[in-house]
Amino acid sequence: MDNLVIQALGKINMGILIIDRQLKVILWNGWLERFTGKSKEEVIGRNLLEVCPRFKLNMYQNILQNALYQGQSRFCSSALHKAFILPKENEDEHFYKQNMHVEPLYENGRNYAMIQISDMTNTSTRVYKLKNLIKELDVEYNKVKISEKISKHLSMHDSLTGLPNRRAFNERLIWAINHAERSEGRLAVLFVDTDGFKQINDTYGHEVGDQVLVETAKRLKENIRSTDSVARLSGDEFSIILNQLNDDHDAEVVCEKLGTAFIAPIEVSSNFIHLSLSIGISVYPRHGEEPAELLRYADQAMYRIKKNGKSGYAMYDSQRDQYG
Amino acid sequence: MLTELQKDMLTELVNVYVGQAANMLSEIVDKHIVLSIPEVELISISDVDPGDRRYKLFFSEGHLFRSSLQFGYDFQGKAFLMFPAEQAKVLANMCLGELTETIEPEECRLLDTDLDVLKEVSNILLNAIIGEFGNFLEMKLEYVLPDIELLHVTHSDPQILLQNEVYVLVLHTSFLLADTNVKGIILIALSMNSISSLLDKMNALLEDDHG
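ok -> structure tokens follow
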């Protein structure tokens, strides 16, 4: 049986050595022979500090003393320590990663310490790679999240004016109607069309036309509350949602203000361009409760202004507003 | 359970013990670590009030790092060091020189090396405390390496952490390094004999002081 135990110690896949209270090596197993190239005949009987100089450090001497005199077991992690036993002296202590267990042993009233060395070099490399991989994945994940955010913003906004587009407007209108329904409030939808924009494009060119649209968006935004929304639906058509109105007249006050905001000409490349607005108004819940319905009624009211000489605003009137 | 005088005495004793452990840790990780036990109590785990914030660790759901060390012979019991998993990760990072102030629970990934580091930290800490208690009581001790586990605790689990109704010494721990403050808890479940020995020894010392 003793022979079997000795054979097993020789084959076991970790370093095992036993020392006595004088730090004299009593056992030096096969793994240590293979790893260091030092046979047990060379090592047994010698002082551990000569065989493995790393143990000269106070910290490790204390650990050994605590095991030999206090019976304390101790674990040392490869992540916090350099290698304890090297294949050859002067080899890089950072390259080899080893965990160490120190356990007290007792026999015939004598105390010994068993030192187990497990090679963790491959595990550490794997963990290091895994950590890097996790970091890379984190970076990639964040990039994807940012690009998703940008794509979402782009898909919901008009690239020229930076205003929400028709899709975003529809979502906001649904949300605003739901909110008004819950709070039993009212809101207005304004359909805003610039007057004579085609002529501006024809006279000054598309680049100037684009700048006019940018300035139009800016003035519209500046003249509504932060809780309201303005969107560019297409070409020179804009729409505004006015939330939480006290009465229908409030929407008309905003239209007055918008009209005033466009009295001053728009300056583009030393050209002073006069622009006016035709605005149609529909009100929730008086004129309708569906988003498409409200937008259509506001559009119809805007057409009445266009037909009657442009520049101004009108509240939807089911008797008067019809296409054609 | 403990008188104020006994509490003060235990707190002082334990702080001396963990001071040694902190020095050892500082030497290993090559950074100054302050380790303190601001409060020590002797309680029956079944008497803990779930509303008491100091025991939040027991009663909140989540992952928990637990290291346990069995010790025996004359002074007998089992010691546990516990941290919420994210605090354990901060502690491991701090020892590995990867400073992180906070870790979100969902970002907490404890790798093999982290667990090894925590095993060594708990080994040093629990050895220091248990070893010194043994010395204090002049009792023979035998102990083994700590077992470490990562547990998921649900609301109904606190009792399972310590399976029977036992008296435990509770040491509220605090690791300080740079801007981090990792808080954990050490529970030392003691046999009735060991508790009696501890109380007797303390009372004898206190009587000497006042006598």
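Residues 121-156 of chain A form the longest helix (36 residues).
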